[in-house]
Amino acid sequence: MSQTELWSYVSALVLTATAFITFYRDRHKYKKWQRRLLIVLIFGAGAVSCILVHQSEKSAREAETRSGDQITKLGQEVRSEKDDNARNYVRYSEQFNLLNDKINDLKTKVRTERLQKELEDTQKELQANQKAMAPGPKARIGFSFYDMSALRTDTDVTSAVARITDNVVEIEFMLVNRTDVNAGAGSYWIIICDQCKFKSEPAGAVKIPGSPEQERMFAFDRMLNHVHSPTTKLQIEAPPNVSAIQISFRYACTNCESEGYKYFNIGLIR
Questions:
Q1: At 252, phi and psi to the nearest 5?
Q2: pLDDT tens figures, 55-74
Q3: Cα separation, 162 vs 42, whole angstroms
Q4: In whole angstroms, what is the distance from residue 269 CA to residue 244 CA?
Q5: Is residue 17 part of a domain?
Q6: Does residue 93 form part of some domain?
Q7: DSSP 196-256
Q8: Residue 246 has pLDDT above 50, yes or no
Q9: How far apart are the C-alpha atoms of 138 and 89, rounded to whole Å?
Q10: Coil, strand, or helix at residue 165?
Q11: Most confidently modeled of 106-110, 154-158, 247-251?
């Protein structure tokens, strides 16, 4: 049961208890049949409120699960497409190399100038096709804390210092594509420290069913070259008496470099 659902139940029960206490205090003002009717209405309304809370939370969980499944499927399709492209390129490269070897072998056996010329032209065409089928340049997505210096330079801001109030720190980050290649559709993941909690759900974030409480996934359609994304705010509840926390980031897209997690530090001012 989530905190939101728990507080919704508590609110419904508190309202029911308040209504009953008010009725009980003034019960002498009502006839016997009116008292019975009011008791049924008060507790009936409380039960209906709890049922509505349950149905609302159930619908929200189902919607979140559906969104998570869709994004997980997108991530799997991205990885599958990248793997297929890599396998196809390796297979075609092997075939091209085999044909190239056969041409070189034939060139040692033919004697006429005309045949030598035909073989050389064929070999040039083969090499041009091989070059054309080679994978193109890849995009690389960077993570940067929001800072004007990150917009003016080609350097990502990988550490930050922020004030913490009531054990909650708020930071802003953005994604940056500093390559010459447009990044296709993809996803990225943010993981906060093990003892940390998300104070509120970040905009656009999805909690994948079964994933750690500290992990959220975000999807993006594409990212043009040499641009940055809109900023995203994170409200993180940090453990008491720590001077710094760490978050990690990784990403995947249809034509991105395959990179692992990167780690970023946030110093805390209390």
A1: -155, 140
A2: 777 766 665 565 455 445 54
A3: 49
A4: 9
A5: yes
A6: yes
A7: -EESSPPTT-B--TTS-TTEEEEEES-B-TTEEPPPEEEEEEPPTT-SEEEEEEEEEETTB
A8: yes
A9: 15
A10: strand
A11: 247-251
| Residue 45 sits in the same domain as residue 117 | no
Structural domain for 215, as ranges: 141-269
Is 72 within the bounds of a domain?
A: no
Same domain, 250 and 174: yes
Domain shared by 39 and 89, yes or no = no
Q: What is the mean pLDDT of residues 131-140?
A: 74
Q: Are residues 183 and 241 in the same domain?
A: yes
CA angle 145, 193, 143 (to 5 degrees): 25
Using a pLDDT cut of 90, give the percent of the chain over it: 29
| The pLDDT value given to residue 120 | 73
C-alpha–C-alpha distance, residues 184 and 222, integer Å: 4
Over the stretch 143-173, which tens digit does the pLDDT of each residue have? 888 876 656 666 778 889 999 999 999 999 9
Are 9 and 53 in contact, with CB atoms under 8 Å apart? yes
Residue 173 CB-density burial (10 A; 0-12 exposed, 13-18 middle, 19+ buried): buried
Q: Is the pTM of this model over 0.70?
A: no
Residues 35 and 108 in one domain: no
DSSP 167: T
